[in-house]
Design the sequence.
């Protein structure tokens, strides 16, 4: 263990170090709180989007079953192959208290009647 000189200067230096460490701790607490708030905000959006997606997926499965019943599985597969398209996403990063947080946005997916093929 290192020996510390018992002088007034050394005492003042240690007090300054302790104050600086306390300020750093408070800053880290604020940073943690800000990141948790951002996480909760994103989690709320994700949960709402997930519920909407599950509802759309259920409706899509019903529509697919109706289409297969009406036109046959081969015709539905053929139409699906003809209408294949990429999903456009916009990925950026935002900065929350020095921590980079990804921001993912979906671009418009719906196509016009002529764009469907």
Sequence:
């Amino acid at each position: 263990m290192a020996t510390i000189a018992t002088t007034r200067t050394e005492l003042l230096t240690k007090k300054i170090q302790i104050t600086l460490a306390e300020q750093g701790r408070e800053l880290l607490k604020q940073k943690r709180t800000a990141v948790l708030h951002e996480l909760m905000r994103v989690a709320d959006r994700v949960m709402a989007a997930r519920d909407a997606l599950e509802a759309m997926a259920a409706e899509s499965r019903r529509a697919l079953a109706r289409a297969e019943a009406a036109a046959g599985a081969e015709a539905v597969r053929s139409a699906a192959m003809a209408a294949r398209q990429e999903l456009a996403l916009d990925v950026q990063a935002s900065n929350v208290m020095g921590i980079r947080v990804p921001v993912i946005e979906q671009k418009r997916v719906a196509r016009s009647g002529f764009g469907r093929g």
In short: Residues 8-83 form one domain. The radius of gyration is 29 Å. DSSP finds two helices and two strands in the chain. The first helix runs from residue 8 to 71.
